[in-house]
Amino acid sequence: MSVDVVLCKETKEFHDFLKVPFQLHQSNENWVPTLHHTVKRILDKKNPFYNHAEINHWIAYRKNNPVGRISCIINRLHHNIFNYFVFNFYFLLGGLDF
After folding, report:
1. Residue 14: CB partners within 8 Å, gap ≥ 6?
2. Looking at beta carbons, which pairs linking 43-49 to residues 24 or more positions away fall under 8 Å?
3. Cβ–Cβ < 8 Å for 63, 86
4. What is the value of pTM for the model shown?
5. Cβ contacts of residue 8 below 8 Å, gap of 6+?
6. Is the dihedral of CA 73, 76, 81, 86 positive or negative?
7. What's the CA gap between 77 and 3, in Å, rounded?
8. Is the Cβ–Cβ distance between 61 and 69 less than 8 Å?
9. Cα torsion at 90, 5, 65, 35 (round to 10°)?
10. Tens of pLDDT along 35-57?
């Protein structure tokens, strides 16, 4: 089965992006969910942090269902002060057979 990875441009895609962990871990009784509004506030491009940084989100869909997500943040202020970029990689993908 194929997976389509889409850049989050629309509000619906961003909401899907936020819901991915809840969908992947809903049957895990030990999972402690993040505070939805806190994550939304941190990742929303309206956050003042993004006055000097850039962010993009991608969401992976399988059969129109969100199954994974990834974000990329470039902090230009950090780069200008310390003259290097910090790279972090986190990809959440679930329910896929490889």
Report:
1. 8, 44, 57
2. 43/17, 43/18, 43/71, 44/14
3. no
4. 0.78
5. 14, 16, 17, 56, 57, 58, 59
6. positive
7. 35
8. no
9. 30
10. 888 989 998 889 999 999 998 99
CB atoms within 10 A of CB 16: 20
Cα separation, 19 vs 33, in Å, equals 10
Name residue, tokens 């994974």.
68
Note down pLDDT in tens along the chain; length 98 residues: 788 999 999 999 999 999 998 988 889 999 998 888 898 999 888 999 999 999 899 999 998 888 888 888 889 998 899 988 776 656 566 655 54
Q: List the one residue out of 45, 64, 57, 65 whose CA is nearest residue 91.
A: 57
Residue with structure tokens 């990834």?
70
